[in-house]
Amino acid sequence: MTTSTPPLILGSSSKYRQELLTRLHLPFVVVSPNIDETPQENETPTDTALRLALEKARDIAKLHPDALIIGADQVATVDGVQLGKAGNHANALKQLQMMRGKTVQFHSALCLFDARRQTYDLRDIVTLATVRDLSDEELSNYLHIEQPYDCAGSAKVEGLGISILEKVESDDPTALIGLPLIALTDMLRAAGVVFYRAEA
């Protein structure tokens, strides 16, 4: 990036999103947003994910008025039920039991907020993941090994979680992990960020 490019902030406490963003070889800092992530009454999964991605970015913009801020949120749904982070083994097992043999929708919302101009680009990248019809024992054993209790839907596609999936359909392979890099690079280019600069 050039000196005229504003600082880039990832507004997320997720280690998975941090790891993904490092792939772009851009300098950035991490700031954790402080918002209520509870879905609102009668809110669709898309609306929940988009609202939270924007709120996270806006929250950080209050203290960083000169920055480009990335906000992201992910909501998983199956049979119309929203699945959040399980938090523990028992909840994760219930989630996987609900998901097995079915196709789960993952809404990976992404916001690039330009705090200088108070403008933003906001998108929802949808991934369809079909879960294998596995036994309770297999699901429980998987959870004990990987312990994906901080992931929506209790499966980490970048790890052993890929073994419980039959199929993944998405325009962006990184969306399911939590930060859609194809969409993000499009947003950053539109904001003037330079990715490839020859050495002086």
Automatic annotation (TrEMBL):
It is an enzyme of class 3 (hydrolase). GO terms for molecular function: nucleoside triphosphate diphosphatase activity. It comes from the Bacteria. Its main location: cytoplasm. It catalyses: N(7)-methyl-GTP + H2O = N(7)-methyl-GMP + diphosphate + H(+). The active site is at D73. InterPro entries: ITPase-like_fam, Maf-like. Keywords: Cytoplasm, Hydrolase, Nucleotide metabolism. Belongs to the Maf family. YceF subfamily. This is 7-methyl-GTP pyrophosphatase.
